[in-house]
Design goal:
Single alpha-helices involved in coiled-coils or other helix-helix interfaces; single chain; about 130 residues; three-stranded antiparallel beta sheet; alpha+beta; binds zinc ion
């Protein structure tokens, strides 16, 4: 009986998930707006709401949004206000330190990764060009 109900509701659940994902996006946008207007506390509340929505619907928060808050205490991370950002060029990563809990998070260097991906597609071309120029 329960299984039948689950099957019958499956479509609506998918729809709910879609709505929840949109809601998460809106909440993170609101968090950004709050933080930019100087209200980091409110921004953190929006992050909390977004997280709860994600958990409730078993959704993953995209990488882009994950970087907006501390993975330990979930505070909104605003560079130079609630976090410090250091670029570790040797390790090719960015160190983000949360000023709320004092813990650090490391992320790979996005710009470099993007360039790498771009170059991967051009590899053949550049290799040929190099041969020619020699
Ligand atoms: Zn923190």
């Amino acid at each position: 009986m329960r299984q039948m109900l689950k099957r019958a509701r499956k479509k609506t659940k998918e729809e709910q998930k879609k709505i929840a994902m949109e809601r998460i996006e809106i909440l993170f946008n609101l968090a950004d707006d709050s933080a930019l207007s100087g209200d980091v506390k409110r921004a953190s509340r929006y992050v909390e709401m977004a997280r709860k929505t994600a958990m409730r619907y078993n959704l993953r928060i995209s990488r882009e949004y994950k970087r907006k808050f501390c993975k330990y205490c979930y505070r909104y991370l605003l560079p130079s206000v609630t976090s410090t950002v250091r670029i570790n060029s040797e390790g090719h990563r960015v160190e983000v330190k949360c000023l709320e809990c004092g813990r650090s998070m490391f992320y790979p260097f996005i710009k470099e990764l993007k360039e790498k991906r771009k170059n991967e597609g051009k590899d053949k071309d550049t290799a040929n060009r190099k041969k020619r120029s020699k």
